Amino acid sequence: MEIRILDGAIKTSAAQHAYIVTRVTGAAGRLRDAPCTIDVRLTDLNGPKGGIDKRCAIVVTPPGLGTLRVEEQAADYYSAIDAAAAALKQSIARLLERTKANGPR
Question: How wide is the angle at C-alpha 74 spanned by C-alphas 7 and 97, nearest 5°?
Answer without folding.
Answer: 85
